[in-house]
Design a protein that fits this description.
With 244 residues, the chain is an alpha/beta fold. It contains 6 helices and 13 strands. Strands 1, 2, 3, 4, 5, 6, 7, 8, 9, 12 and 13 form an 11-stranded mixed β-sheet that branches. Helix 1 (20-26) crosses helix 6 and helix 2 runs parallel beside helix 3. The longest helix has 30 residues, at 206-235. Residues 1-5 and 124-137 have low confidence and may be disordered.
Length: 244
C-alpha cells in the first residue's frame, strides 16, 4: 500500500536513540527540518523533537509545517502501568489521553488496539506511589496501560493539520523502577547528563545497577518498537529508492 501522494511519512520520537534502528535499517541520511534533528531518505523523514509535551508539540509543528507530510508515526519508549506488561512489550493503544488537559486522541488506523496511553508532563514511580499515580497526586485515565510524555502533543498537531497518525511504543521500564533521581539525569534532548549520573552513582553505588538496567530496558524497547514501525513502513511501500 502506498498513500503518500508525493509526500513523506514522518516518524517522530523524543530522542535520537529511539530512532537509531530505523535510521540504520533504512540508511537514512542526517540533516534537519525546521531546525529539528532529522534523518531523511526514501520518502521517510525521522525526527527527534525532544523530551516532554512542550518540546514535542513545538518540534512537531515546525517539522510538519515545513514538509509535505501524508502520515505521522510516533514511536519510542514508554513506562508500563499495567503490571502484566514487561520490558519490551509493544504498546498499540486504542486511545491517547493528554493528562494535563483531558484531551483524547484516537490513532488513524484500523489495526487491533487496546487500552489507553497516557501522556504526562513528567513521570516517575517512587516506592510509595501506587501504579496509576504521578507524584502521588495525579490520577491516570481509566484503562491506562502505559505512560509517555509526547504522543498526545504530537497527535494534537497532526490532527490540527489534518494528518493521519499512529503510535507504536514499547515498555522500557515497569512501575516503580524509574525514580525521580534517575529521571533527573535526562537532558531535554533525552541524552543523559553524565555529570549528574556520576554524582548520583557516587552518592548511591546501587544507582549504577539501576542505570544499567534502565539502559538495557530502553535498548530492548527501542528495538521492539522499531521493528513494528519498519513493518508498517514496508506495508506503505517504503522506503522508495527513487524518492529523497
Amino acid at each position: 500500500m502506498n498513500d503518500r501522494g508525493g509526500g513523506v511519512v514522518v516518524v517522530i520520537a523524543a530522542m535520537p536513540r529511539e530512532l537509531r534502528p530505523i535510521v540504520r535499517a533504512l540508511q537514512l541520511r542526517a540533516g534537519s527540518v525546521g531546525g529539528v534533528p532529522a534523518w531523511l531518505g526514501g520518502g521517510v523523514v525521522a525526527v527527534a523533537v525532544g523530551v516532554g509535551p512542550a518540546r514535542a508539540g513545538a518540534g512537531s509543528a515546525k517539522v510538519l509545517g515545513a514538509l509535505l507530510a501524508t502520515r505521522v508515526l510516533v514511536t519510542g519508549v514508554a513506562g508500563a502501568v499495567d503490571p502484566s506488561l514487561g520490558v519490551g512489550a509493544v504498546i498499540l493503544p486504542a486511545h491517547v489521553v493528554d493528562v494535563r488537559t483531558g484531551a483524547r486522541f484516537a490513532p488513524s488506523t484500523s489495526a487491533r488496539r487496546k487500552g489507553v496511553l497516557a501522556s504526562v508532563e513528567g513521570v516517575f514511580a517512587s516506592p510509595g506511589n501506587p501504579p496509576g499515580a504521578l507524584g502521588g497526586s495525579c490520577p491516570l485515565p481509566e484503562g491506562t496501560v502505559a505512560v509517555d510524555m509526547e504522543t498526545a502533543a504530537v497527535a494534537a498537531v497532526a490532527e490540527r493539520m489534518g494528518l493521519p497518525w499512529d503510535v507504536v511504543r514499547a515498555v522500557s521500564d515497569t512501575a516503580g523502577t524509574l525514580t525521580p533521581q534517575l529521571a533527573g539525569i535526562l537532558r531535554p534532548d533525552g541524552r543523559a547528563d553524565m555529570r549528574a549520573a556520576a554524582r548520583l552513582v557516587l552518592g548511591d553505588p546501587r544507582a549504577a545497577r539501576r542505570l544499567a538496567r534502565l539502559g538495557r530496558g530502553a535498548a530492548r524497547a527501542t528495538r521492539a518498537a522499531s521493528d513494528v514501525v519498519l513493518r508498517q513502513l514496508e506495508e506503505l511501500g517504503l522506503p522508495d529508492p527513487g524518492k529523497g
